[in-house]
Design a protein that fits this description.
The chain has about 240 residues and is α/β, with parallel strands linked by helices. About 45% of the residues lie in helices and about 15% in strands. It folds into two domains: about 55 residues, no CATH class; about 170 residues, 3-Layer(aba) Sandwich (Rossmann fold). The strands form two sheets. It has a six-stranded parallel β-sheet, sandwiched between helices. The chain has a two-stranded parallel ribbon with strand order 1-2. α2 links the parallel β1 and β2. α4 packs parallel to α5, α4 crosses α9 and α7 crosses α10.
């Protein structure tokens, strides 16, 4: 067991899944853990209907006017982008998918495979890498996308999922780790290690406007429960437990 865990009076977990990992992998007693989930600023991340800012963001990041699927994350192996790109190629083969795939985020590590996958599949004109996305542009970018994809292999919480849902954008994500906590009923779940599963999910969301609408409506309700006031109350409760109050 790490010394930091041994010495701690109380532990904070960013999701119920992380709390479960602490119990199962490190033998931490459930009573010694408080879950403090993340939240979003609902004044910023909300449905936006003005087309002018969306057009400006599309132009700024070279997206163009076609519908698009959005992914946002640092480019690194855990984010599972090579499989996502392979799934996108399969989805294009299975149907006349009009969407581009936009993957925004800074380069992390071992990212060469991501770009190599695009080249190998001949998708240079269909997969766009705008690089770092300015924080101020995130709400508009989420709103402009038909849906958001987050097929990570493991996460501690998955805050971008909540940001997308708070904007009224449906989500395609994995059924692993904490991701169902973040996505709730506003996400369509796939097996992140199965390219065909991801592709089927992309086709379903791209083709079924009714599904996107149902997920968006459920996602807005789900995301509304994740407030910083609630997170602060959870954290205050943890401090009181640690102090023996």
């Amino acid at each position: 067991m790490p010394r930091s865990i041994e010495r701690a009076d109380h532990l904070l977990a960013d999701s119920f899944h992380t709390a479960k990992d602490l119990q199962e992998q490190w033998g931490v007693d459930e009573a010694e853990i408080t879950v403090v989930q993340g939240a979003v600023d609902h004044q910023r991340f909300r449905p936006l209907n003005d087309p002018a800012p969306q057009a400006a963001v599309r132009a700024r990041y070279g997206i163009g006017e076609r519908p698009f699927i959005l992914g946002l994350s640092r480019l690194e192996p855990r984010k599972n982008f090579p499989r996502l790109i392979q799934a996108f190629a399969l989805a294009r083969q299975a149907t006349k998918l009009p969407h581009r795939l936009v993957i925004g985020g800074s380069k992390g590590w071992l990212y060469d495979e991501i770009f190599a996958t695009v080249t190998k599949l001949g998708l240079e004109d269909e997969v766009i890498f705008p690089g770092f996305v300015d924080e101020a542009d995130l709400p508009t970018l989420y709103n402009a996308a038909d849906f958001f994809v987050y097929p990570s292999l493991y996460e501690g919480f998955g805050l971008p999922i909540l940001e997308a849902l708070a904007c009224g954008t449906p989500v395609l994500t994995a059924d692993n780790s904490c991701l169902p906590e973040a996505g709730g009923p506003g996400a369509h779940y796939v097996n992140a290690e199965d390219v065909e599963s991801i592709a089927a999910g992309m086709v379903a969301l791209a083709q079924d406007e009714g599904l996107r609408r149902r997920l968006a409506e459920a996602g807005l309700i789900h995301a509304a429960t994740f407030t910083w006031q609630r997170s602060a109350a959870q954290l205050l409760g943890a401090y009181r437990l640690a102090l023996g109050e």
